[in-house]
Description:
By secondary structure, the protein is mainly alpha-helical. It has two helices and no strands.
Amino acid sequence: MIDLTWQxxxxxxxxxxxxxxxxxxxxxxxxxxxxxxxxxxxPLSD
Length: 46
């Protein structure tokens, strides 16, 4: 999805498309951080 928004932005120069791309990137980063945090908090079983 990020690639698509970048292609649209690079062809049109539409700032709203660029802002959408940045929002998607931020959401993706937050998802990765949350999953890393959950992984660290999961206790190891014996």
